Structure formats: structure tokens, C-alpha cells
């Protein structure tokens, strides 16, 4: 897989807060896993960003600022959803088809590294080859929460209608 940098776009119904931008660098690892680096730039003080904490598995991360990856399985129906919080918390769910299932995935914990500088937050994630699955399409997304509690939804591509990261129209990145 050729390394790539891809920009995420805000859903038109959930405008981005204060000129924020999000990009994702993606590449395969030597061991067959996947390395993702989410870069959030802008007025970060207007966002609710969880403080660093223990690397633990938690539900509901998508209700607040977090970064996500959706890997479409080889059957082109089932998929795995990954959530990565800036705190270091994470979660993974397996679905049989569109929103069918959602049980916890039996996976290795990802390695998550947080780096900050003025106006920039980076979350680097490494998924093992086993955790990656064998699918060939990927959806990348993010949720930003403002200090006022408003959510902004970001993705490579948005399906028609309300924000819906689970819609396979959003799984647009081909993995080779």
C-alpha cells in the first residue's frame, strides 16, 4: 500500500468549528498491519478534547471527540468499526452487515500515541495485521465536540442524508 495523506470533510449539516481541518496519513506496516495518523488543526481551545489517560477499552467514544476507521470485510457486507479517543481509550465492534451486529470485536489493542503542539493534535494508531482484517476498503472519520457540546461529523465521503459513518458509500479508500 502506497502511503497517502487524505483530508476529511465536515458533513454539510454539522459545520466545522472555527476553521478546523483534519487529515489522515495512512500506510501499511511491515508486519501487514495499518498505521493511521490523524492530524487535527485549528483553534483547539474551542473543542472538548479528552486529556491523556490509560489505554483502555471503552464504549461510547463516538459521543465525543474521537477518530474512527471502518474496515469493510472481504464479503463486502461485514465490517469492523474502530474508535480512537485522544485520551488513549479505544473500542472495536464487528458488524455482519449495515448496522447488523455491533458486538465487541475480539482484537489486539491498537497502539495509540498522542502528540500536541499549538493549534495541532495528532493521534497515531497502529493496528496489527490480525486486527486489520482482510478487507480491501476503508472509511475514515472523526467526531469533534465543541465546548458548547455541539458535534461535527467528518469523513472521507458522506452518504446522502444525516451523518452516517456506517453507510458503505463512506468506505471509499481502496486498500491494496
In short:
This protein is mostly beta strands and 176 residues long.
Can you describe this structure?
With 176 residues, the chain is mainly beta. It has one domain: Immunoglobulin-like, CATH 2.60.40.1190. 2% of the residues lie in helices and 45% in strands. It is built from 1 helix and 12 strands; from the N terminus they run βββββββββαβββ. Strands 1, 2, 3, 4, 5, 6, 7, 8, 9, 10, 11 and 12 form a 12-stranded antiparallel β-sheet that branches. A hairpin with a 5-residue loop joins strand 10 and strand 11.
Features:
12-stranded antiparallel β-sheet; 12 strands; 2% helix; 176 residues; mainly beta; Immunoglobulin-like
List the helices and strands and how they pair.
Layout: E1 4-10, E2 21-28, E3 34-41, E4 66-72, E5 79-84, E6 90-97, E7 100-104, E8 111-117, E9 120-127, H1 129-132, E10 137-145, E11 151-155, E12 173-174
Antiparallel strand pairs: 1-2, 1-11, 2-3, 3-9, 4-5, 4-10, 5-6, 6-7, 8-9, 10-11, 10-12
Q: Which range best describes the helical content: under 10%, 10-25%, 25-40%, 40-55%, 55-70% or over 70%?
A: under 10%
Structural class: mainly beta
Q: How many discrete structural domains?
A: 1
Return the CATH architecture: Sandwich
Amino acid at each position: 500500500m502506497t502511503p497517502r495523506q487524505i483530508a476529511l470533510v465536515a458533513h454539510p449539516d454539522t459545520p466545522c468549528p472555527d476553521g478546523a481541518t483534519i487529515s489522515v496519513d495512512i500506510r501499511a506496516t511491515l508486519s501487514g498491519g495499518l498505521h493511521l495518523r490523524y492530524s487535527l488543526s485549528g483553534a483547539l481551545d474551542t473543542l472538548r478534547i479528552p486529556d491523556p489517560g490509560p489505554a483502555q477499552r471503552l464504549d461510547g467514544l463516538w459521543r465525543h471527540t474521537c477518530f474512527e476507521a471502518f474496515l469493510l470485510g472481504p464479503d463486502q457486507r461485514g465490517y469492523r468499526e474502530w474508535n480512537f479517543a485522544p485520551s488513549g481509550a479505544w473500542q472495536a465492534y464487528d458488524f455482519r452487515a449495515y448496522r447488523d451486529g455491533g458486538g465487541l470485536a475480539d482484537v489486539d489493542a491498537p497502539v495509540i500515541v498522542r502528540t500536541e503542539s499549538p493549534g495541532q493534535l495528532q493521534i497515531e494508531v497502529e493496528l496489527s495485521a490480525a486486527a486489520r482484517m482482510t478487507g480491501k476498503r476503508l472509511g475514515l472519520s472523526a467526531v469533534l465536540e465543541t465546548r458548547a457540546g455541539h458535534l461535527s461529523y467528518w469523513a472521507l465521503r458522506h452518504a446522502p442524508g444525516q451523518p452516517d459513518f456506517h453507510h458503505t458509500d463512506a468506505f471509499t479508500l481502496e486498500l491494496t
